[in-house]
Design a protein that fits this description.
Blueprint (H helix, E strand, L loop, with lengths): L4 E2 L4 H12 L14 H12 L9 H16 L3 E10 L5 E10 L7 E7 L22 H20 L6 E7 L20 H9 L2 H5 L1 E8 L8 E3 L1 H21 L5 E5 L2 E2 L3 H6 L5 E5 L26 H17 L2
Parallel strand pairs: 4-5, 4-6, 6-10, 7-8
Antiparallel strand pairs: 1-9, 2-3, 3-5
C-alpha cells in the first residue's frame, strides 16, 4: 500500500480533532449483531492460499474469481471494471476493480472499499535478499477484503440495516515504485482507485453519503489513528466512525490522535469522485521497521501475523456504524 507517510506537525489539526471529540455527547446504543472474526480470518487465509496476488499472475486471476463468487453468494450484484493500466515501469497491468452492489435501491448508500492485489516486491524487508520477492499481503490487502466479505455475509443474514452498503475491491494499488528503484516516484500508487474515481458517474458518486477505506486492518497489536487526509476531506465521517468504535467497546484501538497523512486509495475517491472517504489504516508510532508495522512490505506479511482481535475490533466498529445509521 502506499505508504508514503507524511508526519504532520500541524498542531491545529490535532487540536481540532481533540476538541471535536470532546463535543461528542451522544451515546449510541450498542448493536446486538456480532461480527465473526473467525469467519473474517478464514476469508483472509483463503486469499493467501492462492499465493501472492501480484498483478498479471495466475494467483491474482484465480483469487479475483473467488472474491467475486463470494460476494455473489451473499446476494450482491457484481460489476467487473477491467482496464489496462500502466505501472511506473511501463508494465501493462491487467486490472480488475471488483464492484459489489447491494440490491437495496431505495436506501441511503455508503461505500466500503479495500485493495485486493499484493505488493510484488518486499522492498521494506530488513533482509535485502528479499527485496524482489513478492509479499503474501495477508494484512496489506487480504485483511480489508476479508472484513468486507464478512460484512456482506452479515448483511445478507440481517436485513434490518437502514442503509445499503456497496463494496469495491480496488486493484493495482500496490505497484508503486519500490524503494530500491532510482526512479523518481510519480503518481504510481492506487491505480485501480484512480481509474474507478475518474470514471465514476456523477449520479453514482452523489448516491453515496460517504466512503470508508480499509487498509491493513488485521495486524498484531494494531491501532488506528485519525489519518490526516481523512480529517481534511471527511472529518465528520472520522468522528462518526470513532464514535461507533467507542460504542462497540473498541475506543482504545481507535485513538483520538493524528497518525499523519497517507497516500492511499481514499485520495482519488475524495478528489476525483467527490465522495467523502476516510482511511482506517494501522499506525505504529514506536515501530522502527515502519510506522505501518513490522511486517509492512516484507515477506513476513503472512497469516502468522494476523490477529483475530484486530479484525474483530474493525469489523464490530463497522457493524455498529452500519446498524446505527438512520
Amino acid at each position: 500500500m502506499m505508504k508514503q507517510l507524511l508526519f504532520y506537525t500541524i498542531c491545529a489539526l490535532c487540536t481540532l480533532a481533540c476538541s471535536t471529540t470532546k463535543k461528542q455527547t451522544s451515546n449510541p446504543t450498542t448493536v446486538s449483531i456480532q461480527f465473526n472474526a473467525d469467519s473474517a480470518y478464514a476469508f483472509c487465509a483463503a486469499q493467501c492460499n492462492f499465493g501472492p496476488r501480484t498483478m498479471n499472475s495466475e494467483a491474482h486471476e484465480l483469487c479475483g474469481q473467488w472474491i467475486t463468487q463470494q460476494f455473489q453468494q451473499y446476494g450482491y450484484q457484481i460489476e467487473l471494471q477491467k482496464a489496462d493500466l500502466r505501472g511506473y515501469d511501463g508494465t501493462i497491468l491487467k486490472s480488475t476493480n471488483i464492484i459489489a452492489k447491494s440490491t437495496k435501491v431505495q436506501s441511503p448508500r455508503i461505500l466500503i472499499c479495500a485493495h485486493w492485489d499484493s505488493r510484488p516486491w518486499a522492498d521494506n524487508d530488513p533482509d535485502s535478499a528479499n527485496w524482489r520477492k513478492p509479499v503474501m499481503a495477508a494484512n496489506d490487502g487480504a485483511s480489508g477484503v476479508a472484513v468486507m466479505l464478512e460484512l456482506a455475509r452479515l448483511l445478507q443474514q440481517n436485513d434490518s440495516a437502514r442503509v445499503a452498503v456497496d463494496f469495491i475491491c480496488f486493484d493495482a494499488e500496490d505497484w508503486g515504485i519500490p524503494q530500491w528503484s532510482n526512479e523518481v516516484d510519480g503518481d504510481s500508487w492506487a491505480l485501480g482507485a484512480q481509474y474507478w474515481s475518474a470514471n465514476c458517474q456523477k449520479a453514482t458518486a452523489k448516491s453515496y453519503q460517504y466512503g470508508i477505506l480499509l487498509d491493513m486492518v488485521g495486524g498484531q497489536g494494531a491501532k488506528f489513528y485519525r489519518e490526516a487526509f481523512s480529517m481534511q476531506y471527511a472529518r465528520s465521517v472520522v468522528e462518526k466512525v470513532w464514535q461507533a468504535a467507542g460504542a462497540a467497546g473498541y475506543g482504545s484501538l481507535f485513538v483520538n490522535d493524528s497518525g499523519g497523512g497517507v497516500t492511499d486509495d481514499h485520495i482519488p475517491v475524495n478528489e476525483k469522485a467527490g465522495i467523502p472517504c476516510i482511511d482506517i489504516i494501522n499506525y505504529y508510532p514506536d515501530c522502527r521497521q515502519s510506522s505501518f508495522g513490522p511486517t509492512w512490505h516484507t515477506v513476513n506479511d503472512d497469516m502468522q501475523h494476523i490477529d483475530k482481535n484486530t479484525l474483530q475490533a474493525v469489523g464490530q466498529t463497522l457493524v455498529q456504524l452500519i446498524f446505527s445509521e438512520n
